[in-house]
Amino acid sequence: MATVLIKKNTPSKESLEARASPVDDIPTLGAPREEARLLFPRINDFDKEAIATQPSVFDDPDTAEKYHPRHDWENYHRFDPRARWTWAEEYLVIRKMDGRIMLWVCVMAVALEFDRMNLIVALADNLLGDLKLSTNDYNMGNTIFKAAFLVAELPAQLLSKWIGPDRMIPIQLTLWSLVTAAQFGLSGKSSFYATRALLGILQGGFIPNIILYLSYFYKHNETTVRLGFFWSAGATGQIVANLIGVGLLELRGRLGYAGWRWLFLVEGLLTLLIGLFSFVLVPAGPCQTASWFRGKAGWFSEREETIMVNRIIREDPSKSDMHNREPITLGLLWKCLTDFDLWPIYIIGLTHQIPATPPANYFTLVLRSLNFTTLQTNLIAIPAAALHIFSLLGLTILAEWLGEISLTAILGQLWMLPFLTWLAVTNLAHANRWLQWALTTLLLGYPLAHALQVGWASRNSNSVRLRAVSAALYNIFVQASAIVGSNIYREDDAPYYHRGNKQLLAILGANVVIYLLTKVYYVYRNRQRDQKWNAMSAEEQLEYLSSTTDEGNKRLDFRFKH
């Protein structure tokens, strides 16, 4: 865990395993386990009846009071530092959370991708020609969407922290689904730009809300892996959107309307259905699942709630800093904005996706220019999304298994390098169209480090208020990168975009350097902390914990992940 224990109270694995009875009236603890190395821990690999409760600051009477949760924390009634549970109980609770919480989060990810992907799918049915738009108009529409998304990101997250993500998430889903369906009536450039802006405003903050919401239920390493599944579900949504598009675009001419109009209408209504169900399938927190729809007793028993609450707070005591419906004040917001220790991750968010953004935005247009039919274009766009699912999950799992974030994330950039190089230097006018499709598919199937990096920002926040704001700020930088990426391919560089691809190669090289510098920065910051902390005696460390005004990741007992 990122919070450093007091030196005199750090037990060895052997001493923990040797305890047969409570020491100093503290119930027996479980032996430390490297949970970060396990995606889905195999319960048959060890004694499932052994104690799973891990050592924490709550096991020392001197430090326990320094980290004691606020009394108005929504889970306070289940906080019990003496609670102990077995591995069998813990893994049963995790599986139950996955079935009740994570599964529906993945469904909502699919809904999000429906309403992002349908524009790209609609391009295959001559949307630009029907609306009399140029590719530069299309670029402008993407820019408007991303700019609106960016502007709405932080306000949406602040509102979510005030009213709760369990309310904000369904509201967003429902409202943007109505705008999506309304695109059935697009009539030209003005209506195209207007709906792009509305969708950006309504979808802004959705992903940070999901990140904050999952942190209420899962430990840090579990959250990162499940964010990998969240984005994989989004990629699955791309595949489903393409398959639906294959059928709906064939309706072109039905009742006198183009196929892309039916696409927007049907997928908007599907998202509306998911949004309405989300009002009753997204509980506020581990101890707030009871409702008329979920049952008076809720989804989890009292014992399960105790395990859920104590396992996350023992790993990260900062999760009790704020109530889940407590607003962030302007003073706290300013502290978050000026937290320079998270800016390296924000900078990575600004640049890491740019090399793949233009090829992804223009994929269907390029395929159509290669004389693939509308049906063929939507079908052969699927393999890129399928490959993306497995590479994204693989990268996320590898990083958690290795315990290494920054160096693992570089692999995504190295993956893209040969394919971008080929696009930049090859005379595509004479290239085989299937070869061009295959190499572009491999490029777009790169292992995206997005799940790793949002989890990285969350881990390095070390407070609820900073975690909420950092997720929004990170995503703001990601949307800014999409604005940049949407304007690299220009009409005067068409149809092969050699100039644009060379610019993407330069940005890719810069990304590798940025990742390495970020690694160096966090190693340096941790060494600074170690020097100060280890120079203190145990008594001085306790005095620091009781009197410090340092907050979040500024505390000397916190270490940055990298």
What shape does the CA trace take?
globular
Q: What proportion strand?
A: under 5%
Query: Major beta sheet, specifics?
Result: none
End-to-end Cα distance: 13 Å
Task: Spell out the helices and strands N to C.
Answer: HHHHHHHHHHHHHHHHHHHHHHH
Strand element count? 0
SS-based class: mainly alpha
- Mean pLDDT, to the nearest integer, reads 82
Number of DSSP helical runs? 23
**Proportion in helices:** 55-70%
**What are the low-pLDDT stretches, counting only 5+ consecutive residues below 50?**
9-23, 35-39
The radius of gyration computed from the alpha-carbon positions, rounded to a whole number of angstroms, is 25 Å
What does it look like?
- This protein is mostly helical.
- It has helices at 13-18, 61-64, 87-123, 127-130, 135-163, 165-182, 189-203, 206-215, 220-248, 259-281, 302-315, 330-337, 343-351, 357-361, 363-369, 374-380, 382-402, 406-425, 433-444, 450-459, 464-485, 498-534, 538-547.
- The longest helix has 37 residues, at 87-123.
- It is globular.
- The relative contact order is 0.13.
- Mean pLDDT is 82; it is low at 9-23 and 35-39.
SSE blueprint:
Blueprint: H1 13-18, H2 61-64, H3 87-123, H4 127-130, H5 135-163, H6 165-182, H7 189-203, H8 206-215, H9 220-248, H10 259-281, H11 302-315, H12 330-337, H13 343-351, H14 357-361, H15 363-369, H16 374-380, H17 382-402, H18 406-425, H19 433-444, H20 450-459, H21 464-485, H22 498-534, H23 538-547
